[in-house]
Design brief:
Elements (H helix, E strand, L loop, with lengths): L2 H5 L2 H8 L1 H8 L3 H8 L6 E5 L5 H9 L4 E6 L2 H10 L8 E5 L12 E7 L8 H11 E12 L7 H13 L4 H10 L5 H10 L3 E15 L2 H9 L9 H11 L3 E2 L2 E14 L3
Parallel strand pairs: 1-2, 1-4, 2-3, 4-5
Antiparallel strand pairs: 5-8, 6-8, 7-8
């Protein structure tokens, strides 16, 4: 199944319904993303793969006299983003359903493009980033966060592998998305792609953070298994999932270490 179909199907509906949970999970990487983006008060910002709009709203707070456009291929996510952003000033943030690799952006219409995990799903990444670059003004900036592979032998990697085994083969949608998620995991390949797309000054640096999966092991297991398709979850599977999460319980919740790459580049003048 293509990623666009997944994000407009059960996966997208799940993210829309659990927007607060997913934003809390990804929030530890926001500081690194926005430090890299260096958004100014007047900037015009493009948020690629904006999801339910958490990063778009954060960008609007920084670009207090600018404008933010969030674009996502998922209709359920964009609908949720619009609902969650209704309180903002008129024109601060607009959301559009579209595929950023081909969406009709005006040439040079943005000062900075950002993305928190939304640029790994392009069928042709060089063409996609070329198109995004053309939407930036000369000297415009690109900053995004994408997954970094967990080190072999790490406890978190083992935990996620065990959790995946519990849901078996009924996660075809998640499998296709997981494969796409790793498309920019090699920093050297990412640099080659961006330079081929016309960007310069490419920088890729690692960032690690603890991601919160739930209040406790049972809550984390319920959240993880709420994505499961196919037959109903048995008590045994639910108990096994909670056992996987239990070693990661802390006073702040269930925390699993995760790694990302923070990537920056700019369009030449």
């Amino acid at each position: 199944m293509k990623a666009a179909e997944a994000w407009n199907g059960s996966l997208g509906r799940h993210w829309a319904a659990h927007a607060d949970r997913y934003d809390a999970m990804l929030a530890p990487f926001d500081a690194a993303l926005f430090d890299a983006a260096a958004i100014g008060v007047l900037d015009r910002v493009l948020d690629i793969g904006c999801g339910t709009g958490g990063t778009s709203r954060a960008a609007a707070r920084l670009a207090a006299r600018g404008q933010v456009t969030g674009v996502d291929v998922s209709e359920p996510l964009v609908a949720r983003a619009r609902a969650l952003s209704a309180h903002l000033r008129d024109g601060a943030v607009t959301f559009e359903v579209g595929d950023a690799q081909a969406h009709p952006f005006g040439p040079g219409g943005f000062d900075v493009a950002i993305s928190r995990g939304g640029v790994m799903f392009f069928a042709d990444p060089v063409a996609a980033f070329t198109h995004i670059g053309e939407a930036l003004r000369p000297g415009g900036r690109l900053a995004f966060v994408c997954p970094r592979p967990a080190p072999p032998g790490g406890g978190e990697r083992e935990a996620l592998t065990r959790l995946a085994s519990l849901v078996g083969g009924d996660q075809a949608v998640d499998t296709s998305v997981a494969a796409a998620m790793a498309s920019l995991s090699d920093p050297e390949r990412t640099g080659v792609i961006l330079e081929a797309a016309g960007f310069e000054g490419v920088s890729v640096r690692p960032v690690s953070a603890a991601t919160r999966w739930g209040a406790d092991a049972a809550d984390a297991a319920d959240f993880f298994l709420s994505r499961k398709q196919g037959p109903p979850v048995t008590d045994g599977i639910r108990a096994a999932a909670a056992d996987v999460f239990r070693p990661y319980e802390t006073p702040e919740g269930v925390l699993l270490e995760a790694g990302t790459w923070v990537v920056t580049a700019r369009r030449p003048y």
